[in-house]
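From the pipeline queue, job 12 of 40. The input is one protein chain; the requested action is below.

Action: predict structure.
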Amino acid sequence: MSLLPTASQTVGPYVAIVLASGERREIVEPSNPAALRLRGHLYDGAGAGVPDGLVELWYGPEDPGPGANGSPPTWPAGFGRCLTGPDGGFSFVLTKPHAGSDAGAPHVEVLVFARGLLRSLRSRMYFPDEAGRNATDPVLGAVGEERRDTLVARSEGGELRFDIRLQGEHETVFFG
């Protein structure tokens, strides 16, 4: 007897079909003086780009400003969503959040959805220009020193680069 996966057992192609209209790559206007461009790739365990994944960023609280015609904003502040491209690439325009009240370093919460995952994976992205605060961040400090760099973006050509590896060598640290 052979059992086949059901829709509740895998994300399958449904991420792109259902969530494509919900992209929000520009968390802030690119003209904002504090705007940062973030680019990265979502890689599988073999090092290939995942073309049908979804990356979400969460941080806050930030003031999103009013929506169209002065109405309330339609998105939560500090929230972004991007489908990965054919090569697994994603990009966002964001600002660096303020450090948390727990004396932690500024960071962005990262959620990853992809085929074969039963649940989203949760991680964090820290900023490369915050070495002092990163060194004292309680969450980053709980990660083994040899894996901390998987949580810190790097500066590259005036932008931030943050690659997410689902498995294998240099696998990104994920939290339960």
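Job complete. The CA atoms of residues 39 and 156 lie 9 Å apart.
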